């Protein structure tokens, strides 16, 4: 076991654990974040550390997974955690690894330390890692990737996570932008050591490094991923056809040891949920990247399939553009929330496979979630707010819903019926997923998939911090931004939850969203598939998996 006794944060975390301010699972998560080895953290918490699932013997074969085959060219600007990145993540790896329990482990980084003020993070690059072209993986490769994702011209959503501690706001040619806050913010200490010198404290840096657009690319790629791209991962992409198929072949020289399968094929099964059911029933594929609630009843009857699920913070956010009428008025936005009963949506859209949301995008699955007063349906109150906003006869708009998540339409239909009672008339307009994601930040009202993140403050930073790439609603609230930065730099879980509670209240009062439910993410796999575990973000790791004969 690693000696973690000199970690400057350990005493404080153990104190919170012993006096009940922090549960054992939360202790393990936060201890791992500040550099305590997972083995030590589990031992200190008095919990057994599960052995990571991985196939034990190389048996070969081709694993076929049903999914959607989306555009993959620009990993640093991906917007699909479960589609595009599940192709490239077999080739491109990450500096850290957050497991299905929410515990963050070293990966391409071997270990790290953080200063007592949570501002100076020192990361040790794992020695012995080789790119697929035979080159050694070094600190220079890390710095190239970090610098690239923080370039505003690239447009990576990483900016939303790190803006509070690595970036400054600037104006360029009359437009708001960002820049890295200091020349030594990203520092090369030596060939195998990288240091982040932050302007503000931040507890979640290692989790940010596992955000799916933070895939580590070779500088020669110039940010483009394609067939034959160089990677450090266990596979090489050998075939790609948009909307049809991606083929990945196992590397024999992978630094982490050879994969147990020879080939992974990801096959596009389309937007029609019945097509995926048919493909599984006929054994054309071994499993789905993830399943939809509408597929559950049919798939659970197939005896050759195993069911996998995990509670998550995955959600379909109905969001409103704050710079477009009528949603520029916060009273209208609040009225939209007040007219909804989340329990109804949970039953109709998810068939109970999840938990109700509270219109603030913070989930009980998050360790920093704060329980605040429930947001009750109040139709009379919604009508009163609309009248105060200058809409005594109600409001009308159009809700654009991508059809690549079948439950989105059921959620929308449920909400539309409830909105009618408050004088809110909403027209439902389905749109092909590929077309929606070209306009998702522009439509006045739309439904967006937001996948699970390990901490609620990560969701809030990505989606609602002023001016960041994924702030699809154009929301801007100075008090919210200030409190978010405060929460990001607070290791004391009790104090952080107090701050998160304030953020949640702002979202309920002023925010740009109607967010009725969180879903439990699940899938079905052929029982021949071994080494698979359901990750809350729908990430799949083919190097762990094998096929029985």
Task: Give the topology, please.
Blueprint: H1 10-18, H2 24-33, H3 38-45, E1 62-67, H4 84-88, E2 96-98, E3 104-106, E4 109-114, E5 120-125, H5 139-149, H6 158-166, E6 167-172, E7 175-180, E8 186-190, E9 193-197, H7 205-208, E10 235-241, E11 245-250, E12 263-268, H8 273-281, E13 287-288, H9 293-299, E14 305-320, H10 330-338, H11 342-350, E15 354-356, H12 379-388, E16 395-402, H13 406-420, E17 424-431, H14 433-436, E18 445-450, H15 456-464, H16 478-488, H17 493-510, E19 513-514, E20 517-526, E21 529-530, E22 546-547
Parallel strand pairs: 1-12, 1-13, 16-17
Antiparallel strand pairs: 2-3, 4-5, 5-9, 6-7, 8-9, 10-11, 11-12, 14-18, 14-19, 14-20, 15-20, 21-22
Helix pairs in contact: 1-2, 2-3, 6-15, 8-9, 10-12, 11-13, 15-16, 16-17
Description of the structure:
The chain is an alpha+beta fold and 549 residues long. The chain folds into 4 domains: 1-49, no CATH class; 59-93 and 222-286 and 528-549, D-Maltodextrin-Binding Protein, domain 2 (3-Layer(aba) Sandwich), CATH 3.40.190; 95-214, Dipeptide-binding Protein, domain 1 (Alpha-Beta Complex); 311-520, Dipeptide-binding Protein, Domain 3 (Dipeptide-binding Protein, domain 3), CATH 3.10.105.10. The chain has 17 helices and 22 strands. The strands form 7 sheets. The protein has a 5-stranded mixed sheet, covered by helices on one side. Strands 14, 15, 18, 19 and 20 form a 5-stranded antiparallel sheet that branches. The protein is globular. The chain crosses the membrane at residues 27-47.
């Amino acid at each position: 076991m690693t000696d973690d006794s000199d970690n400057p944060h350990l005493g404080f975390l153990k104190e919170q654990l012993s006096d009940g301010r922090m549960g054992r699972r939360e202790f393990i998560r936060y201890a791992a974040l500040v550099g305590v080895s997972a083995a030590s953290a589990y031992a200190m918490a008095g919990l057994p550390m599960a052995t990571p699932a991985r196939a034990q013997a190389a048996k070969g074969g081709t694993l076929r997974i049903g999914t959607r085959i989306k555009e993959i060219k620009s990993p640093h600007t991906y917007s699909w955690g479960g589609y595009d990145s599940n192709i490239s993540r077999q080739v491109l790896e990450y500096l850290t690894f957050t497991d299905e329990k929410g515990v963050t482990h070293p990966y391409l980084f071997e270990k790290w330390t953080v200063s007592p003020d949570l501002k100076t993070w020192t990361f040790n690059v794992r020695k012995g890692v080789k790119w697929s072209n035979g080159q050694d993986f070094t600190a220079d490769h890390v710095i190239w990737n970090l610098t690239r994702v923080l370039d505003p011209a690239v447009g990576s959503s990483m900016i939303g996570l790190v803006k509070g501690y690595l970036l400054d706001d600037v104006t360029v040619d009359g437009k708001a932008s960002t820049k890295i806050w200091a020349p030594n913010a990203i520092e090369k200490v030596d060939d195998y050591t990288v240091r982040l010198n932050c302007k503000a404290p931040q507890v979640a840096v290692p989790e940010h490094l596992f955000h799916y657009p933070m895939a580590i690319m070779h500088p020669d790629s110039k940010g483009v991923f394609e067939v034959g791209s160089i990677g450090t991962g266990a596979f090489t992409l050998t075939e790609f056809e948009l909307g049809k198929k991606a083929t990945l072949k196992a590397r024999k020289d992978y630094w982490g040891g050879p994969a147990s399968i020879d080939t992974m094929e990801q096959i596009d099964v389309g937007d029609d949920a019945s097509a995926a059911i048919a493909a599984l029933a006929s054994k054309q594929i071994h499993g789905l990247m993830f399943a939809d609630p509408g597929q559950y009843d049919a798939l659970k009857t197939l005896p050759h399939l195993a069911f996998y699920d995990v509670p998550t913070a995955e959600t379909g956010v109905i969001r409103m553009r704050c710079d477009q009428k009528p949603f520029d008025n916060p009273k209208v936005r609040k009225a939209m929330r007040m007219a909804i009963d989340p329990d109804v949506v949970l039953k109709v859209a998810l068939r109970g496979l999840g938990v109700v949301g509270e219109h603030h995008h913070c989930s009980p699955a998050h360790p920093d979630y704060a329980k605040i007063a429930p947001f009750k349906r109040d139709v009379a109150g919604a009508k009163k707010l609309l009248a105060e906003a200058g809409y005594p006869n109600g409001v009308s708009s159009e809700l654009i819903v991508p059809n690549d998540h079948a439950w989105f339409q059921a959620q929308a239909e449920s909400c539309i019926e409830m909105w009618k009672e408050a004088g809110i008339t909403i027209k439902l307009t389905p749109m092909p997923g590929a077309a929606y994601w070209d306009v998702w930040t522009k439509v006045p009202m739309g439904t967006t998939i937001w996948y699970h993140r390990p901490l609620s403050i990560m969701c809030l930073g990505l989606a609602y911090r002023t001016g960041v790439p994924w702030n699809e609603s154009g929301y801007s609230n100075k008090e919210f931004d200030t409190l978010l930065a405060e929460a990001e730099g607070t290791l004391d879980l009790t104090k952080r939850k107090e701050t998160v509670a304030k953020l949640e209240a702002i979202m309920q009062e002023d925010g740009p969203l109607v967010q009725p439910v969180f879903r439990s993410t699940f899938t079905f796999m052929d029982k021949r598939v071994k080494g698979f575990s359901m990750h809350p973000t729908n990430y799949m790791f083919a190097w762990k998996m094998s096929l029985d004969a």
